[in-house]
Give the backbone structure.
Amino acid sequence: MDSEKSSTGFVGLKNLGCICYMNSLFQQIFMINSLRNDLLMVKDVGQGEKDDNMFYQLQLLFAGLLKSEKQYVNPKGFCHSFKDWEGNAVNVLE
């Protein structure tokens, strides 16, 4: 069944288009236990909308990779929060 977690215990990341390099970086960072745990323990004191908070979205992504029972986590929230110099969100099709 597509919605079930892999028997390996790991969860993947959905490729929304052309973000495979970003996803591979997330997976590499996630597999460094001490770094992952430290990132998840940080209390973000940032003000404003959580949808635009890149650190909060990274924490959500890592929490999903750690705790999800699904096959993959969707990085859409992080892609929306990650902005270029002009303030535009990542275009997942470029």
In short: The chain has a mean pLDDT of 90. The chain is about 45% helix and 5% strand.
